[in-house]
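Quick log. Single chain, no ligands specified.
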Amino acid sequence: MNNLPWSLGRRASIQRAQIRSAVVDSLLALAVVAAVSLLIAAVNELGHVSNISNLYIIGAALLAARRGLYPALLTSILAFLAYDWFFIPPLHIFTVDDPSEYVALVTLLVTSALIGHLLVRVQHRATEAQRQQLQTELLYEVSRAALSSSEVSQVYTLALQRVSATLGLAWSRLLIRNTSGLVAVADFGTPPDRTDGQYLVQRVIDEAQSLGIWCPNDNNVRIVSDLDIVAGHARSPEGGALAALYVPLLIESQVEGVLVVGGKTSAELITAEEAHFLQAFANQLASAVQRDRLANQRARARALEESDRLKTALISSVSHELKTPLTTIKASATTLLESSTAEDTTVRHELVESINRETDRLTRLVSNLLDMSRLEADALPVRYEWVSIADVVDDVLDRMESALQGRRVRIQIPDSLPETPLDFVLIGQVLTNLLDNAVRYSPETAAITVSAEIVRDQLRVTVFNEGSYIPPADLERLFDKFYRLSTTPGGTGLGLAIVRGIVEAHHGHIWAENVGRRGVAFTFTLPSPGRPDQGPVLAPPPAGVRS
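-> predicted structure:
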């Protein structure tokens, strides 16, 4: 058993508060009796009024309603003595000439005490009903918060704040079990440091039983005792102030947490009803913990399911995309090794072009996979510089000359278009993927248009390919990973996902839309604030809003 300076100080403070309250109640009782006595004396000067002693009963009733039973009983006794001393002959001695006056005095005493007692009981029942209502509302509020809140830690903090305010607790703490043991997930007030706190928590876990920590009034030794809250026992046999209460959170007969609360800030002790409420409150928290764990388990299950789905989609799409160019490269290389084609320059040139084309295709596929992995790991840095989008478009068209397969590409970019802060390489990758997508999914004779303009401090770039149409149901999922149109086989489903990731890394937006039946337009916007007179772009611009 250890000394508890904090608990002893609090116990002394409570005792001082009790003494102050008793002194105030006694003075109020004296004041009420004195005031009523002066009033009776003033009335008697004017004439005799029967049953005027009932004024004492009114005073006792008022004190009972406001301050409790002790001042009411004290007022009744003082009224009995004062009325006998000042107003019943012979005056100023505690005897009476008429024996019937004894009946009046006893009636005054009993009536005052009885009315005071009844008023205190009524007040107590009203207070208890209000307290039960607050406790019921608290349980409902915690239950509703646990069901509606996505962040369970906020529920724990709210719960401790509300229970401490409802019961007037000095402090409270909630510990929840995780993979590393019990950890404190929420605090209210300032819980005192205890060297044996871990031992007490472990005892609650081992015994699945509530513990009360008591400080007796006659010494400074702390007492730890089992507390059968279900039976309603919340007092130490030795007496004293409750310093702390440890309540287990039971989930399917297993202790998954501990609710630790301190004593009250007032002079009151925790009642049996409040102790029972704390057990119900702990059970409600246990339900919140269980729901959170079930939600986490479902989230992990969904994540594993999504991971398996993406893995299957990756293998399905990439295996086909790898097999086709590898087969072409292998066939071309094998043909080149044959002696019959060694002297045919035209055939050799075609085979080498085929190998070069399929190698570029493999390079784009591997680059897409690497870019996608870096985007998901948030490891794709954006290196901003002031760039003309026309320069980016020209660079992309030069590199994609063979991939465009002789397609007509119209450029609609004004010469006066100002420079925009962007990553030249990454936006070049965006345009490359959009142009590659346009070539793949439009007729060979269809033209492709690349346009750009500034709209409300936003650079808007559009790649429009004629002769294409996307079903409206597919427009929303077009930029998802591994998503491919059901009407158009082939592809990995990564190109547009990478495009969206790069654009959003620039704080931009991208979308696709059908332009009637003429074709499909892919549009992305990037923030384009006015260029300052000097200095490079040192930080990303603020997120823009799609106009």
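The first helix runs from residue 5 to 46.
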